[in-house]
Amino acid sequence: MTAQEGSANRRLSLVTVDQILSSLSNIAALIWVAHAFEPIDFGRFSLVVMVYTVAQVVFRSLIATTAVVHPEDVDARPGAILGSTLVLGIGAGALCSAAGLALVSSDSAMGGPILVFGLALPFLVLHDVGRYLAIARQRPGGAVVLDGIWFLLLPVGLIGTRAAGLDSLTWLIAAWTGSGVIASLWVFVQCGAPTGGGVRWLRERWDFSWRSTVSGLAASGTALATASLMTLFSGPLAVAAFRAATLLGAPSTAVQMAVGISAAADIARERTDPRAVWHHVRRAIAIATAVGVLNLVVLVFLPDVLGHAVLGEAWDVVEPLMLALSLKVLLMAAQSGLRASLIGTHRIQAAMVTDIVSIVLVGACMVLGAAWGDAEGALWAMAVGTGVSTVCWWIAVIWKGRGPLPELPATADEAAGETAEEAAEETAEPVLARPVRVAPGKHRA
Questions:
Q1: What is the DSSP code string of 385-413?
Q2: What CA dihedral angle connects 83, 353, 260 and 217, to 10 degrees?
Q3: What is the CA 410 to chain-centroid distance, rounded?
Q4: What is the pLDDT at residue 165?
Q5: What is the pLDDT of residues 117-139, one digit of tens each?
Q6: Where do the TM regions start and end (predicted)?
Q7: Which residues are CB-neighbours of 248 under 8 A, at least 6 positions away?
Q8: Is the pTM here over 0.85, yes or no?
Q9: E runs forming strands in 156-266
């Protein structure tokens, strides 16, 4: 193993650790709510988490992914990226807070939690974008620090509010988001103060950002729509079993996501070298496949004793779904580095179209499978849809990979610099072209 490969593996390991830490904060809060509050409060908290998830999808697609594939911006002007993040984050937080105030005025139990969440939202999206900036700068340890601070502060907030007798859902949201707000301040230590005149950076990179956002929203929106449609064809027990089964596959999915993020960041820095790009693609697929095989072995051959310890009586309903779920995760491994290769080489149009086609295929298969055989039918159909979507990704990569790399649009600063240089060249008077006057009666030496 070369020193470069060893460094890449270390970065990937840190990105994986960061993905795990990022999910642990939300999982820990969910577990706390499940044990300390009534079931209805657990449902309300889940709604707040869903709002947060949608906000993450938007900001990751619009800003974080765009930053990852533009390492020149991350290296030279991270403050401009943070400036765009804060302007949009304040706008999103204001909308969320206004919704919370409207709910408070109507005496809704969701008013306080949504209001508190809206006030914290600008800092929460700043924290998430800061993680991706650290990964894009090939310093994933910074992302681990950001998520580590949040994870360590969270129990302090939860235990503190309980000790003070502040046991309402609003105060729990304040403890959860408050620890994230404090952790987000470390982004300024890592990247500096926000600059760049509002959303100027985002306007410069809009050609990439809007396509990335369409892909992200299509993924999250289709997932929500298909999950809702499944309830029309299946009973509550089947829907619960499906969600529990997919939850068991979440660790493997998190590793695959980490592999994709790391590969996209590396490919963006070596996009002009096809051999290096395919090296990162093969490496991502190999790691994701190994994780998928391990996931299959663990879930399919998991002893009933451990299954009941994790899911209780629900294990008897979920256990028949493990093979279909494991095959779906394994099929996803074959496309782990493909999306990263298209995004990292700035072929975002092809990635957007393939994302939409793949998601529609998988969603349609899921709904048809649920109508045919409840949760088990949905998962087997999803496995088939995932296999078809993997073929779509390979076709897109092979087809678009033959063409030349797309040219990167110049930023406003670069365009201004080029214009100034051209103007200087046009107005400059060439010294060697001036005529040399010779006085009468004199001759040149």
A1: HHHHHHHHHHHHHHHHHTSPPPPPPPPHH
A2: 50
A3: 25
A4: 85
A5: 999 999 999 999 999 999 999 88
A6: 12-33, 45-69, 81-104, 110-129, 141-159, 171-193, 214-234, 240-263, 284-301, 321-338, 350-372, 378-399
A7: 299, 310, 318, 322, 325
A8: no
A9: none
